[in-house]
Design brief:
With about 230 residues, this protein is mainly beta. The protein has a single domain (about 25-225), classed as Sandwich (Immunoglobulin-like). It is about 5% helix and about 40% strand. It is built from 3 helices and 14 strands. Strands 1, 2, 3, 4, 5, 6, 7, 8, 9, 10, 11, 12, 13 and 14 form a 14-stranded mixed beta sheet that branches. It is globular and about 45 Å long.
Length: about 230
């Protein structure tokens, strides 16, 4: 799987504007590879990504049902809620990767994972929990409320958009080359909802038989338009 991150001259608005011209410039990826353990609910999830000199812009649009959202504290288990995710590995096979996991209310879980081997004490053998001071350099826009009192069982569409500054990632991986000199990254897009009445786990690049998004060898390729 390969995705081209288009370069944009004007920063896209993070306001849920489906018709914003910057997003129309972006290629679309479909999160449509569902793990067999998923329920019969198959939400349609599209994602667009753009870049400029400051960072990355990511937009998710979900046609969903059975939506849950209870977590409001960053670094809580947002994947239990209705959640979208982007994983980014700037230097494939050389350093770690970032897992940006955002529930539909805009709450974020974010680690820098160096060794994703499962460890009962800390989920992964070697990771850094990204501090709130760096999370504050991001911007996240969500169309649904921060929390939901009960599951939304009927059809509903929602969006989540975010800006990820390069400076956040450079804290862990060092200076990133300019886009024109940058090699391919690896990464993946996900949609999940562990605690929904109709749980599901979907990815853009297929993850194989194991229900584990944290396997860099299954990531797809991200290339940058210069």
């Amino acid at each position: 799987m390969e995705y081209l991150i288009r370069r944009v001259a004007a920063k896209p608005p993070l306001a849920g504007d489906l018709g914003a011209p910057q997003w129309r410039h972006a290629d679309v990826a479909e999160i449509a590879s569902f793990h067999p353990r998923s329920s019969d609910h198959r939400p349609q999830t599209a994602v667009w990504m753009l870049h400029d000199d400051d960072g990355l812009y990511v937009r998710f649009h979900v046609r969903d049902r059975y939506v849950v959202c209870t977590r409001t504290e960053n670094q809580s288990l947002t994947c239990k809620d209705s959640c979208v995710e982007v994983y980014l590995e700037p230097f494939p096979g050389q350093k770690g990767y970032f897992n940006f996991e955002m529930n539909c209310g805009g709450t974020l879980l974010l680690f820098y994972v160096i060794d994703a081997t499962r460890s009962p004490a800390g989920i992964f053998r070697h990771k850094h929990i990204v501090p709130q001071s760096l999370i504050d350099t991001m911007r996240i826009h969500h169309s649904l409320p921060r929390t939901l009192e009960k599951e939304i069982a009927e059809p509903v569409e929602w969006t989540l958009e975010c800006f990820i500054p390069y400076s956040l990632m450079e804290t862990y991986v060092g200076k990133l080359p300019p886009a024109g000199e940058r090699g391919a990254w690896r990464g993946n897009f996900h949609k999940c909802a562990d605690d929904s009445s109709h749980p599901h786990w979907a990815s853009w690049s297929p993850i194989g038989e194991a229900l584990n998004f944290h396997v860099p060898s299954t990531f797809g390729t991200f290339r940058f338009e210069g």
